[in-house]
C-alpha cells in the first residue's frame, strides 16, 4: 500500500517536522533525555552514543534511536520489537554487509557455503560502523518485516550506559474507511491491497463480509496487518 510521507516529533524538545528535518535536528539537539526514559539506567554512567535512523517498509514508518556505544545489538533488537514488531516471539537478525547477527544463532547446514551467523550479543561500538553505514533488521522469517537502518553519526550528548532509546517516532498515518470514508480502525487481511481497499471503520468492520479472524487493528507500525501483530505490548 502507498502511504503519504509522515511527520514526527523530537521526544526531548518537541520539534516537529518531516523525517529528513528531524534527522538534521537530532544531530545538533542537546536537550536532556526525559527522566522517564532514563529511569532504568539511572545508576549507570553516561557514555558516548550513536544516532541511528530506522525506516520501515513502507517508508512512512520511521524511528530515530540513541544507542550507547556499550549497548548490544540485542538491545536494539529488543527496542525494535517493543516499539513496532513483537507479536509471536519470532526469530530476528541484523544483516550488516555479509555478516548476519541473529537472535538465536545456529550452525549452518552441512555442505552449506553460507557463512555462519553471529550472535547479537556484541556491543554496537565494537562493530566500528562508519557514518552512513546501512544495514537491515529482519523480524520473523516467515512473514518477514524488514527495517532499514543507517548510522547518522555520533550523538551531540552522552546517553546512559548500555541504553537504547527512541528519540523520535513518526506520527501515525490516518486511513479512511473504504466503505464510508470515516476514520478507519481495522484492516482486513483478505481485502487489503496496494490501494488500501481493506480499511474499515469500527461500524463497517462489524458488518464486513470477510471472517472477523482476518481483521487486524490499525497500528503505527510497518508490521500492521501481518501475522498476529496488534500493537506494542499486545504480543
Summarize this structure briefly.
By secondary structure, this protein is of the alpha+beta class. The protein has helices spanning 19-26, 35-38, 73-84, 202-207; strands at 7-10, 16-18, 46-47, 49-55, 62-68, 92-96, 99-102, 118-119, 134-139, 145-154, 159-160, 164-170, 186-188, 199-200, 215-217.
Describe this protein's structure.
The protein contains 4 helices and 15 strands. Strand 6 (92-96) and strand 7 (99-102) form a beta hairpin. The radius of gyration is 19 Å and the shape is globular. The model has no long low-confidence stretch (mean pLDDT 89). It has 235 residues and is α+β, with helices and mostly antiparallel strands. The longest helix has 12 residues, at 73-84. 13% of the residues lie in helices and 29% in strands. The strands form 3 sheets. Strands 2-1-12-5-4-10-9-6-7-8 form a 10-stranded mixed beta sheet. The chain folds into 2 domains: 7-170, Roll (Structural Genomics Hypothetical 15.5 Kd Protein In mrcA-pckA Intergenic Region, Chain A), CATH 3.10.290; 174-218. The chain has helices at 19-26, 35-38, 73-84, 202-207; strands spanning 7-10, 16-18, 46-47, 49-55, 62-68, 92-96, 99-102, 118-119, 134-139, 145-154, 159-160, 164-170, 186-188, 199-200, 215-217.
Rg for CA atoms: 19 Å
Task: Return the structural class.
Answer: alpha+beta
Number of domains: 2
CATH class division of the largest domain:
Alpha Beta
Count of distinct strands = 15
CATH architecture descriptor name of the largest domain? Roll
- The low-pLDDT segments are none
**How many helix segments?**
4
Query: What is the third-level CATH name, the topology of the largest domain?
Result: Structural Genomics Hypothetical 15.5 Kd Protein In mrcA-pckA Intergenic Region, Chain A
Task: Output the helix-strand order.
Answer: EEHHEEEHEEEEEEEEEHE
The portion of residues forming beta strands comes to 25-35%
Largest sheet: 10 strands, mixed
Mean pLDDT reading: 89
The separation of the N and C termini measures 24 Å
Strand order of the largest sheet: 2-1-12-5-4-10-9-6-7-8
> Which outline best applies?
globular
Helix content: 10-25%
Amino acid at each position: 500500500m502507498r502511504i503519504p510521507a509522515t511527520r514526527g516529533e523530537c521526544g526531548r524538545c518537541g520539534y516537529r517536522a518531516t523525517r529528513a528535518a528531524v534527522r538534521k535536528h537530532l544531530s545538533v539537539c542537546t536537550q536532556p533525555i526525559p527522566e522517564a526514559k532514563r529511569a532504568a539506567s539511572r545508576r549507570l554512567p553516561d557514555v558516548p552514543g550513536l544516532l541511528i535512523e530506522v525506516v520501515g517498509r513502507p517508508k512512512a514508518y520511521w524511528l530515530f534511536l540513541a544507542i550507547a556505544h556499550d549497548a548490544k545489538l540485542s538491545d536494539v533488537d529488543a527496542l525494535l520489537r517493543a516499539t513496532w514488531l513483537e507479536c509471536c516471539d519470532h526469530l530476528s537478525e541484523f544483516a550488516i554487509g555479509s555478516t548476519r547477527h541473529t537472535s538465536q544463532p545456529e550452525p549452518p547446514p552441512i555442505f552449506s557455503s553460507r557463512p555462519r551467523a553471529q550472535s547479537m550479543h556484541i556491543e554496537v561500538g565494537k562493530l566500528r560502523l562508519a557514518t552512513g553505514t546501512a544495514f537491515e533488521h529482519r523480524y520473523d522469517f516467515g512473514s518477514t518485516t524488514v527495517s532499514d537502518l543507517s548510522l547518522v553519526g555520533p550523538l551531540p550528548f552522552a546517553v546512559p550506559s548500555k541504553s537504547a532509546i527512541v528519540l523520535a517516532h513518526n506520527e501515525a498515518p490516518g486511513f479512511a474507511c473504504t466503505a464510508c470514508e470515516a476514520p478507519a480502525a481495522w484492516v482486513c487481511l483478505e481485502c487489503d491491497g496496494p490501494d488500501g481497499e481493506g480499511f474499515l471503520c469500527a461500524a463497517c468492520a462489524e458488518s464486513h463480509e470477510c471472517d472477523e479472524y482476518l481483521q487486524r487493528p490499525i497500528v503505527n507500525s510497518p508490521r500492521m496487518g501481518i501475522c498476529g501483530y496488534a500493537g506494542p505490548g499486545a504480543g
